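Re: the request from the purification team.
They wanted to know what the chain is likely to look like in 3D before they choose a buffer screen. I agreed to run a prediction and write the result into the notebook, where they can find it.
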Amino acid sequence: MRPEPGEVLHFSHNPAITRFDPHVAATARQPEAYVWAVDAARSPDYWFPRDCPRAMAWEEPATTAADRERILGPGGARRVHAVEYGWLPAMATVELYAYRLPADRFRPFGDPVNAQVATEPVVPLGPPERVGDLLRLHEEAGIELRVLPTLWPFWDVVIRSTLGFSGIRLGNARPRD
């Protein structure tokens, strides 16, 4: 589930949104109101239930062979997503929808870019599409999905590596020991 050229995606549990209005997200670190979306490269970051904490790591041009082997491992994956065991049932059963939005209404956000934002209301290009089987999406994209007792040991190693990384909803992860 990725956008076509000229599109960005917004993922939601709500299949009845007819217009996206800018708002300040509850988890926002900035005061500006935005409509949030993602491009094709960042779409896999959202193949999860909304509140699911996830730690993600991927190869970058500057990734060292040692970090690739130590963190991504011998399975050949260029990208790894990690979730906690308690979220696996939700991963298998969530009803998630993708809204296709016109990319020309959005601008890149973050350094490095991790999202697309609009400051004006945006109307979807059509009805939302059911995303479907999240585990299958990961498999088909060649993304290794790791299920861990807690995200913190993985996260602590990833953020000190040469890999690209992102953590979403980490506040919902199990507490550190």
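For the purification team: The CA atoms of residues 29 and 110 lie 11 Å apart.
Please add any questions underneath this entry.
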